[in-house]
Design the sequence.
């Protein structure tokens, strides 16, 4: 039986991309820790990864052909990707002057930092956050975080869903660079379809600033405290279709069994 007190520590750090999941349904997030990866994302996730690979190569100075080769050669890392779809999105992204002329400061950079635990956290262990940000650009003298999102969902929904991830990236990038990194925008390359790439509505800017990051991430402290205390609960939501459990019919009995086992272990 895995020790829930290790959740969010160096032994099992929190990833920015998983923060919204933790806040949306703590039980699903805990299941990933207890039982392993549920393979969230499938073809869509792998296609997005492939697109990111090509874009990163472009910002490192590679020409278009080399970017596509890099994307194709890495297929073993994202085997479910639709490379034709990824290539189409990348080619539009690459011809957008806003991307071609972007001043890139960081690309696919590793970040890590700690968050102070919540007062009610029984472990009082610092919360370890690690991840890989997409890109930081210099825009009019300011450093700003940008993230490519290839989801088919509504762009405004994508923007809001990226809030916690972007806040963590802004914090990590600021620590890495020793300079304040403001939220920039999510870039939605699917919105290029049928439009002039340089004027297409693909940049969706965050409505908050770096000053809001601490408040945005504050909820993470309390959510992790609950998991570490063993206070696990299920929240049905629209993302249940991507969960390995799929529905409460499977999820809730599994939760009840887990809670009973842990209660029994404590009594012994």
Sequence:
């Amino acid at each position: 039986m895995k020790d829930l007190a290790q959740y969010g520590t160096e032994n099992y750090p929190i990833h920015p991309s998983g923060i919204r999941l933790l806040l949306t349904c703590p039980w699903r997030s805990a299941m990933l820790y207890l039982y392993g990866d549920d393979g969230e994302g499938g073809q869509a996730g792998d296609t997005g990864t492939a697109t990111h690979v090509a874009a990163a190569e472009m910002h490192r100075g590679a020409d278009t052909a080399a970017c596509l080769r890099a994307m194709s050669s890495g297929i073993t890392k994202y085997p479910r990707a639709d490379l034709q779809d990824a290539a189409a999105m990348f080619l539009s992204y690459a011809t957008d002057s806003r991307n071609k002329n972007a001043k890139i400061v960081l690309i696919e950079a590793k970040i890590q930092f700690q968050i102070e635990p919540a007062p009610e956290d029984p472990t009082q262990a610092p919360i370890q956050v690690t991840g890989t940000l997409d890109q930081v650009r210099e825009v009019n003298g300011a450093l700003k975080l940008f993230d490519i999102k290839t989801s088919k969902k509504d762009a405004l929904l994508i923007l809001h869903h990226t809030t916690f991830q972007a806040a963590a990236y802004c914090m990590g990038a600021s620590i890495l660079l020793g300079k304040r990194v403001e939220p920039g925008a999510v870039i939605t390359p699917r919105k290029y379809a049928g439009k002039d790439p340089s004027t297409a509505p693909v940049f969706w800017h965050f409505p908050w600033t770096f000053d809001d990051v601490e408040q945005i991430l504050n909820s993470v402290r309390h959510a992790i405290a609950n998991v570490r205390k063993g206070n696990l609960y299920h929240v049905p939501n629209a993302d249940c279709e991507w969960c390995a459990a799929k529905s409460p019919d499977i999820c809730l009995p599994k939760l009840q069994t887990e809670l009973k086992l842990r209660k029994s272990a404590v009594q012994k």
The mean pLDDT is 94. The chain has two domains: 9-38+103-267, 41-95.
